[in-house]
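Hi team, as promised in this morning's meeting, here are the two structures we talked about. I've kept the exact order from the run log so nobody has to guess. The first one is mostly here for context; it's the second one we should focus on when we meet again. Sequence first, then the predicted structure tokens.
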Amino acid sequence: MRLAERDEELRVLTEVLDASGRGTGGAVVIRGGIGCGKTELLTVLKSRAADAGFLRLSAVGSWPERRSPGAVLSQLLCDEPMLAACRSVVGEVVKRAAEAPAGGAPFGEQPLDSATAAALHGLCTQVTRTAARVPVLLCVDDVQFADPLSMHWIVHLLRVLRSARIMLVLTDCTLSRQAHPQLHSELLRQPHYVALTVPRLTPDGVTELLSQALGDPLARELGGQCHAVSGGNPLLVRALTEDHRRAAAVFDRAPTQLVVGESYGDTVLSCLHRGRPVLLRVAQALALIDERHTDPGRLARVLDEDATVVARAIHALENAGLLDGGRLRHPLARKMVLESLGVGERRALHNWWATALYEEGAAATRVAEHVIRGEAVACTWTVPVLREAAERYLLANRAADAHACLDTALRACDDDAERVVLRALVASTAWMLNPSMSARHLGELAVALRAGRLPDQHALKLAKYLLWHGRFQEAGHAIERMEARGHDDDPAAGGELRATRGLLSATYPGLVAALRPGPEDAADPRIRGVASLSHVLAHGPDDRAVVDAEAALRTLRLSGDTQEWLMCAVSALSFADRLESAAIWCDHWLGEARARHVPLWEAEFSSLRAGIALRQGDPLLARRLAQVALERVPAESWGVCLGGPVANLVQAAVDIGDHQAAAEYLQIPITEGVFNTRFGLYLLHARGRYHLAAGHPYAALDDFTTCGDQMRRWEFDHPTVVPWRSEAARAHFAVGDQQRAQALAHEELEMTGPGHSRARGVALCALAAVGPSAARVGRLTEAVENLQKAGDRVRLAGALADLARAHMAAGRPERAQPVLEMALLLADEAGIAASLGDLREQAQRIAALRTASRLPEAAVAALSGSERRVAALAARGCTNREISERLTITASTVEQHLTRIFRKLGVRSRQELPAETVLDA
């Protein structure tokens, strides 16, 4: 492979080589970053030297051998037959150096005894004598790692070099200074000394290098990306080329984007391991902090290194193209460098970073990031910093990070009183992410509450958590203890208690009784919001409840202290038939919950919005939202509130007509505690509707009756919440108890007023279904009017379908047809056509009957017997082939009959054929 952008360097090296061959010894030092092409230049030079008849002697310095006496010298002189006499001398010198007391001292600090000096001089003489016969090229790669003994010999050689046919080439990858100042000083004395610096490749150079492997068009396309990722380091460019080739082999085509893969990552690590260990340590620390322009002094404190050494290491990494502004150039490079750290090393490094950042007064979140990922930092500042960081993360909508801070603080804290508060805070953030995560803290918090060590605001939250997880008795004790404390001298705490009890009583009515709001509570939007829901649940919708709900929604802002009260206010609007307003508000809060990245809030608002969608007659949307609710928070983490999303799924499936899906949703495991919540009512109603639709009226009746009993017991018994009487009426009718069915339907209708459009429409539909047929059209007509006002497309489509059937039963197909067409249109829009049975067939029958009523009797009478039989089968929907098989005639004969039938009856298609009953008359 041709070297890119190295023509000038090769020209200079070749000139020195030629001059050395003529007897003018020369020395060249090639400096440059790791992987920037110094070794490649040596390779090309050695090839040219071989062509020119030079004897080539080579050695490579390495960090592990930098203290091994004669490591480089042995490589240079001991393997060349022409210098066989040197082998024993080198062996003696190495042995003597190894036995010397200062054998491991750096070059320049190790004293050289006279015997060793004489031996080294003799070795130089051997080389110069050989050079008299054949020119010699000596190459030492990575001379910065050469051992002291070898360096002494190289300095000796430089002193006799100028008049010998010897060229000495050294490559040096230093940390921004000369690795061996004594060597540098000797080099400067040489008249034919040349210093070359190998820069990184420019974008054009990268493109040139790529074109040799990938071709010009692709190289031009990828050159810019490759330069950005490689930093112009030729070794990394070749690694990226290899990644590209591998990808092309895997996919059988050349990728059009830059592929950064395994070869690149391995080469980055290889570059770091080729330098001094401090390079890798600095790279690891920089990868961990992942910031631009990290202060070398801070980094030195983290690594416990000299600041100058660290600064040189950063410069060396930048010079090699591995860093860009103090950061590794690509995420894969960072990943590989971090993976080179052991678990213990990584934790320790995080701890060092945390301490350094704290001492500099860095932001709490920056410090906390490293405390969390490190081992326990036993410092007085750890817990306060973590708590401050948690508060900042919550303000920034990063609940997961806040939870990590508090959890780490809890483990680091050794103060019992503070641990109680921290545990409560951990439970609170865990709750926002996944309620199941909070369960492990509830026992100790309950113990702290009984001991009087849990602050009031956390005690109320504890009651909510315990109820959610079905630990009703413990929750009751928590509430009783809170009430027993008394809050006469603390109005704020009293208001908090009333707001929380109001919330809990609306969700767990059989377990928690609401406290009557006081005059001072009128200004608390949370109490107004939950009071509006409680009023609608008990008495049905009215204007006051709507005003209170909307006031709460306009005043409150979404937070951990308001989210559940906001849901109550939205629910109040939904039950009050303000569905459009409820949907708008719920969508608003759902969007905020998503933006805040709080899974529980998103799940609960999704489930609430699904319930609103069901009331609007949009079961497809309801099902999607209910599924989202169970994706954001798994079913097993919903506790006793699981009835909400499951009920929505079942209701949506029943509305759509997908009974198999409804049955599968009902297999989701739930606890008995669900039926102690308001959501249990929804589940009983949904399950009963499924049983009724699936042909199990007794099972349905059991669910509806249980639901009704519970609602009466809780004084939530209003059809705007759950229309259980209407459904129970249908179930009674299905088992033959028409009297009880009518009584329940009448009772529910009487409970609805003019403002209860949806509930009244549902009750009228039920009464029409179970009552006398003579009143059916009138009741269904009124039901349609109410359901149109309510905006429930599913219920409206069903009412229209029933009204069309009633018109048909009354012998008025001309009235039935437009009603049925509207029902079909709504059913298609809502995606519920399957749930309305043979509605489309009925529409075709009505159209056929209306056509038949317009046909002259003479036209029908003009059909022959065989034509009437063909027409009857065609009207049923039979194909020509089916007709031919049934009547034992050919398909051609069927076609001929149909042509004559259409002409005689004056119709244009099968759909306009009279109903078979008319044709068969």
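And here is the second protein, the one for discussion:
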Amino acid sequence: MTDITKTFRAIIKAKQISSDFNLGLGKRSKKNEKISTGFLSQAKIILSDITKLKYSLLESRTNYLSPIYLLSSTNKIMNDEQRHDYEQHVERQIKRCRDNLEELKSSIGLICFQGQRRAHFELVCAYLERDLVECTKIYSEQKCLRYKRESERKKIGRLDNDVLRVTLSANKNTTENLVENTKNENNSEMIVTRISQFDADEQEHQIPSAPLKSTELHQLQLENDRLYHDVAQRSEEIHAISTQVVEIAQLQNELFDNIFSQKDLIQNVDAAAVASNDDLAAAIIHIRDAIRNTAQMRRWVIFFLLVMIFSLLFLDWYNMTETSSSESDVEETEDDNVLPISSHVNIVHGLKTVSCLTLDSNGIRMITGGHDETMKMFDFTSMDKHFQAFRTIQPCPGRLLRAIEYSANNDMILIIPGDCQAIVVNREASGKHIVYKTVLGDMYVKDMNRTKGHKALLNYGCWNPSVNSQEFMTCADDCTLRLWSLNKRDQQVDVIRTKGESGRDVRTTTCTYSQSLYSNENCNLIAAGCENGNILVWDRRRSFVHVTFKCVNAHLQDHSITALKWSYDNQILASRSTDHTLKIWDIRKFNQCLSLNENLPNQFSMTNISFSPNDQFLVTGVSKLNNLSESDSGGKLVIFNRNDLSKPIEEILFNDSVIRTNWHPKLNQIFATTNNGLVRAFYDEERSPMAGVRLCLNRKERKDKSTNDFIANINPIDSSEPIEETREIYPEKNPQGDKKPSSLHQHIVQTMTRSNLHEKEDPRAELLKHAEEAERNPKWVTPAYVHTQPKPIFQQQLDEEEGDNDDFVPIFKKARKN
């Protein structure tokens, strides 16, 4: 049988290369290479075992099938015991290869589930299975041939003998013994010994044997006939057994084929079982839905019957409850119409205009900024009744602040200074607080779409109100709106150019997002106010080249639109302008103004609008006019009904102009800034929750840790003994300033110094005690100057007028200047 190992490898390699080429895979991942290497190594081991088994069967074919080993001059021909051991060895090898092949097939499902790789692995297993079947077939054919030859030999020889060995030996006396050992079916041994003697001249001499008697011959003949009949009977049994063995071998081959094909059947059964389970689950779901629908129908029938039964009773007490319900509705509407302005507190920011005001969505912190270039942060959970800011910073030194706003997640703060670059800082505004700073546009590029940022002063900016949004929008005097993202920091995300009816660029003064956090309707709109009085609205789902809604001449030309604000239902857009008007627009009919008020002075470009939490009212600020009478010269905080702006429902007078307003939806408190550095917070003690400024009203003033309590006693002190003018101060525990020695030498020196020092001793007096002895017995200083300077020279005495001259004083003796 030819060896197909190399051909098998070539086929597998060609299949793999063609599949990789068709799939466009140049390289395989390391993980797949490791898995393929493990699988192929195991396949190679199984192939080598099958090849060795095949070679062993082919090489041992002659020795296994040869029936005469006694006449062979070599020891390679097998006897019955060796054949039996050989058959057991071959069967163990076949069984081990079959088990390894089954394990290899089962590992395919763990390595890969589908694709070219699985097909490749299944092809490898198919080739191995084919080789194993061929080896099994060779072994079965050899075994059948052996039993067939053995049965034919037995028929010819009439005796079922198995020749074991012929041993020939020659000695110096030329004597040779021939011993034949035979085994019959009962495993008994017969030994026939023949002695042949040869003389020295190699002549054969036969020893005469005694003649047999007739009775002995007859007895031997009868014995021979009996043995012949027994052998013939046994040969027939052996022939039947050999036929059964052949049939068993054939059945074994069929069993192997059925076992190999049974796995595919099991897989098909498994797939069918899974499909049947899915179908059963779907049927259960349909049955459950049908039962549910039936039960729902029954519920509706029962409900209809109950309604019909209780309808008469309902009509009886309906008239009685109508009056009470109307009264309760009136009370609820009155509660909703009550404005939280019964009380107020003042929060001091500084001395200049407060142009920025923002609160986080939870109402815990408030940030103010103004023309004094400072930004102050207030925390209502930690402030006392004096409302002191816990942090004050200057995010842009030398630039006034135009807008500040918290993000939707309250984790970042957007700052719009009077500059070309917006700044994003973290919530605490501490440490490296600047998270992002927008890119500055190229001043020499005229096309606004090609610059990476603004190149003119910013007017306003705001965050995208969507949750987890990293986007914000800015507008500037370069006639553009730019959308920025913290995920793309090298330039803006989109550029929107604002143009007039003639196609020329128009300066953008304000911008805003729609309220996507509170309503899903019209949640993708962006609005912008222009200097020519137009209001432009874009839909983010479309291109920004053309506007979606446009209101021409919404306000007077050459007057800035200071604020645009969407209502919480995204249906109404309110606008405020320096033409002293306040208008509201319906996005469904954008060309027509729903209501307006033309007597609201506005002299600040940061004046804004705020809607109430119930979306029924809106509030804005009125500027102070110096050219009017004193009675009307102050600013105002005006509150209008959303449906009618002709007359305010509430006016709150201020001494100065009101600029920024904020009606917080959770706190139900109104915050307003002025141009004199104050922030006034309005609240209602009954309807505003215990949060915001209400948390700080009842808190006591916190004492500074550096101040000490001092209790003054105004009563005179009566004592018979006079009061000492000086008191001995209790000494400190460590007058050396708590300095610890850094080495053993310093420790010893400090210990000796401390032990010899006495606090009440005068060092000059102690030194003068030894002056006379030093003159009599000079030891150190005087002998050193005997030859060089026998007469001592002392420092010159200075007058009091010359005491200020430091030239005569050594450097190391000069007093330290504080």
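Starting points for discussion:
Residues 214-337 form the longest helix (124 residues).
The chain is about 35% helix and 20% strand.
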